[in-house]
Amino acid sequence: MTLSEEGMAVTKQSFIRGTMILLAAGILNRILGFIPRMTLPRVIGAEGIGIYQMGWPFLSVILTIITGGIPIAIAKLIAEAEAEKNETRIRSILRISLAITISLSFIFTVVCLLGASWITSHLLTDSRVYYTFLCMSPMIPIIGVSAVYRGYFQGRQNMIPTATSQIMETLIRIVMVLVCSYMMVPYGIEYAAAGAMIGVLAGEIGGLAVLAIHFRWDKKALAKPPIAQIGTKKTTGRLSNLRRILRISIPITGSKLIGAGSYLLESILIAQSLAIAGITTSLATAQYGALQGMIIPIILLPSALTMSLSVSLIPSLSEAAARKDLKTIHMRLHQSLKLALVTGAPFSVLMFVLAEPICKYLYNQPDVSVMLKMMAPIAIFIYFQAPLQSALQALNKPGAALINTLIGSTVKLFLIYWLASKPEMGIHGAVFAINVNIVLVTLLHWYSVVRLLKFRMEGSSFGKIGAAMLLSGVVCYFVMYTPWVSATWIRFVSSLLLGLFSYIFLITAFRLISLKDIGRLLNMGKKIIR
User: Fold this and answer.
1) Burial class of residue 463 in the structure, from the number of CB atoms within 10 Å of its CB (0-12 exposed, 13-18 middle, 19+ buried)
2) Nearest-angstrom CA–CA distance, 385 and 87
3) Counting beta carbons within 10 angstroms of the beta carbon of residue 378, is it exposed (0 to 12), middle (13 to 18) or buried (19 or more)?
4) From the centroid of its chain, how far is CA 317?
5) How far is 428 from 439, CA to CA, in rounded Å?
6) What are the tens digits of pLDDT across the range 61-115?
7) How far apart are CA 112 and CA 108, in angstroms?
């Protein structure tokens, strides 16, 4: 075994094991990340959360331009080079990607810092975002370089660096967000929101430091890159690699840019539509903060699995596609979609049935539960959407994902302007528009994948999951809202546990999963911990 092969044997993980590593990190991050999300609204209030959140849509557009498609292109191309054992090409791909990302990051950071005053007063509709925007601008190069390194390790199918960097980033953010925002509260709500953003910046720096350490270890393991084996593709020239990176990344970036641009326009349109409906700027900021800073994070909490599946799916499907192994492609996609449905369904039920107590105990703001109840039934489409989009990207069909996202975004923005400007609907009109977008894009992605791969899932699986959701929801409802004990929190915890237990029992009885599957997952978890 060569040194290169030995290094790869140590770090490379299988599709399922890589997914489980990212899943474990994702679940831990989501749980830990809710600590500041629960406490920050109590420190700076819903209006402060609105100011804190309002700069993110603009930043997401910048980050999408810089990192939207490059990490996926790196993961795909490095996975192909790994199959060829072409270490020279891997290093070339990494160097080119870093050069592109660092150059773009520098340009956009300067633009954001110099144009912060105009951007926050004209585009973001609330000039109090100025200090928060200044504090978030230095994150652009840090997040850009981190994304390149994560794409590199994902292409090698080594998910440990990504997982450990995410955990470190979250741990630092938990402490720094709360400390910095609390220290700045006496100076005003806009300074408190900026303090929270400084805490996020500190977390990003910590995450990048962990990735840099892992990369240094990886370089030592592969001290002498071997020449590509005879018979491999001789696409090791810099210009050739640059063309391939751009050919893959530009359509993906375009697709993601539509989503990010839609997110930015969404924030602007919501504020303007609420103003047309007669809602004051401060109240509109508070409502937007409740939607983006409280409700959406709850909805996305179970997506730790689907995001993990999506990250692992791209290199796995890319390798299978390079071998023209259609059977493996179908198997991996079926595994991902079934897991996304089975694991996302109970959370969708619990968020719908227990919307009010969840918002009360998490944020001490039960009034925002109406938005959670509206979005909860649609959440399962979010969990199903991510693996479908990754499959389209891995199979060189990012254009289809782009068109689907564009259609959904256009419909969403039209509905936001139409519905949120009505006084009787307001912010709930915006929530309805977002729901329509989620369902429409997911169905379009599904149609694209089915047409591309002649892929199908058994209709009985959807029916069984639906039945399990309904029956476990009934159990959850009666435990929560039947006054069998006076303490509400006891009923809440009991309904959560019994709802989950009844769902697991039902999907096992319906043979959606088997006891062997559960045992396999537990054994895999033990191996990952070791």
Assistant:
1) exposed
2) 34
3) buried
4) 20
5) 17
6) 888 888 877 888 888 788 777 777 777 888 888 888 888 889 999 999 999 999 8
7) 6
Closest CA to 332 of 343, 350, 320: 320
The answer to whether 354 and 376 are in contact (CB under 8 A) is no
Q: Can you give the length of the chain in residues?
A: 530
Q: How many alpha carbons fall within 13 Å on the CB side of residue 419?
A: 18
3-state secondary structure at position 479: helix
- Determine the Cα–Cα distance for residues 313 and 222; give it in Å rounded to an integer: 25
Contact of 408 with 422, CB cutoff 8 Å: no
Residue written as token pair 């470190």? 168
Residue the block writes with tokens 């005003």: 188
pLDDT of res. 496: 92
Q: What is the pLDDT of residue 529?
A: 47
Q: What is the pLDDT of residues 280-328, one digit of tens each?
A: 777 887 888 888 888 888 888 777 666 666 666 666 676 677 677 777 7
CA distance 334 to 404: 21
Contact assessment for residue 499 and residue 349, using Cβ atoms and an 8 Å cutoff: yes
- pLDDT for position 10: 42
Please report which residue ranges of 277-397 form alpha helices under DSSP H: 281-290, 296-300, 304-322, 326-353, 355-363, 369-375, 379-394
Say whether 510 sits in a helix, a strand or coil.
Answer: coil
* Contact indicator for 37, 290 with CB cutoff of 8 Å: no
Residue 296, classed as helix, strand or coil, is helix
Tokens (6 digits) for 415: 């509905």
Q: Which of 168, 116, 171, 170 is nearest to 140 (CA)?
A: 116
Q: What is the pLDDT of residue 221?
A: 60
Contact criterion met (CB below 8 Å) for 305 and 339: yes
Q: Residues near 285 by Cβ (< 8 Å), separated by ≥ 6?
A: 47, 50, 51, 54, 126, 271
User: Average pLDDT over the chain, rounded to whole?
Assistant: 80
Phi, psi torsion values for 379, nearest 5 degrees: -55, -35
Task: Tell me the residue type at 435.
Answer: N
Q: Which residues, given as ranges, of the chain have pLDDT below 70?
A: 1-27, 29-30, 34, 125, 219-237, 304-316, 318-319, 322, 459, 514-530
Task: Give which of 251, 265, 391, 293 is closest to 38, Cα–Cα.
Answer: 293
Rg of the Cα trace of the chain? 23
